[in-house]
Amino acid sequence: MTFARPWLLLLLLLLPLWWLLRRRRAVPAARYSDVTLPAMATRRRWWVVLPPVLRGLALAGLCLAAAGPRIGGDTVEIKQEGIAIVITIDISSSMLAEDFAPSNRLEVAKRQAESQQRVAETNAANQWRIERAEILAKNLQVLASQGPGSVEQRYGVLLSLARGDILDPELAVSYALELGKDNASYMRAVLEATAEKNYGQLAQAFKMTCLQRFGVEKAAEICKDDALADRSDAIAQVFQDELEAVTAAGQPAANGPLSILKDEREVQAFPGKMAWLFEPYLQDLYERRQWQEIDRFEKFSVGSRAVASLVLATARTGELVSASESTELDRFHAERRKWLAGYLLGHSCDPDCRGKLVDVMLSSYGEAEGDYDEPLKRLVRAT
């Protein structure tokens, strides 16, 4: 164990002084009309000293907490060596001599310099692959360990490897998901430090709870994925953070989690999972009235529009709003009700697609406050 601020441990030396001063402090006296009562209390009981002892322990705990105790994993040292190459080329008029017809000396020299640069880059890349393999080999045993006892060590090593871009993104995500079974917040930190991750891999690891799937909670075999609720919530939070980062950086939406909504058939196969994955992000936009960002999300693809329609139907803040804002919200929800009803009856949504969408709508029917009524009624009339 190490301490972030070890010098604060010196405060522990003041505790004996505090104890002595407390003992020397004058004890308040009280007058009694009958001395028999205080005479009965002459024998000292053990619980009399309990409060000051507990105060002392509390002060010692505060000193230790202020010092910042921490348990770190193995230290991952990343050593890189490079060779600075400087290429100088004579650009005097003599270099125009065509000794290497049809090219002159200068063109030949440039081609040789470019060839040397490519060779150097290839050698550096190969050397880096070898070093990465050596680092991974040293830490493979830690990464492969499981259970709560190795969480801190796995987290430290995995986070260092992810930040150093040493671990392959797909492999980093796999190890992070395994870590998430024991500590969801640690998994989230590793995932957000992993560049170029596969969002489809994260979506596959997202497990809906029985409450999300059926609208009820029950201790049954079918609800075994409820044990992974914290991990799934953390994955949804990663999606929200990544979407906000992409928007803030002005990057194309396809670079972030929205990429998994590009394939409409994938959304139709797992509409509930997709809706709950993007629910924190869309709910946050709705609460902050970020209509332009919601519109940007919906315009990405048909799949993103379907997900937004499902999620925003249950988006309610419960706050009192002005008449003008209430009218705007009513129009907002009416547009999405109309689109969802049209999509349910459209040619691109087959019977299997309609059945899965209806399952999602029924599981959160109460929260929708009537927004699902119109699509469901039109679907019933059409059948």
What are the main properties of this structure?
383 residues, mainly alpha, 2 strands, 61% helix, flat
Summarize it.
Helix content is about 60%, strand content about 0%. With about 375 residues, the protein is mainly alpha-helical.
Rg from alpha-carbon coordinates: 33 Å
Helix content: 55-70%
Any low-confidence stretches, pLDDT <50, length ≥5? none
Q: Largest sheet at a glance?
A: 2 strands, antiparallel
The total beta strand count reads 2
Strand arrangement in the largest pleated sheet: 1-2
| Fraction in beta strands | under 5%
Number of helices: 18
Mean pLDDT: 82
Measured between the Cα atoms of the first and last residue, the distance is 67 Å
Element-by-element helix/strand order: EHHHEHHHHHHHHHHHHHHH
Envelope shape:
flat
Give the class from helix and strand content and strand pairing.
Answer: mainly alpha
Topology at a glance:
Elements: E1 2-3, H1 14-24, H2 36-40, H3 50-66, E2 69-70, H4 105-144, H5 151-163, H6 169-180, H7 184-193, H8 199-205, H9 210-214, H10 229-249, H11 264-269, H12 271-287, H13 291-298, H14 302-312, H15 323-344, H16 351-363, H17 365-368, H18 373-382
Antiparallel strand pairs: 1-2
Helix pairs in contact: 4-5, 5-6, 5-7, 6-7, 7-10, 10-12, 12-14, 14-15, 15-18
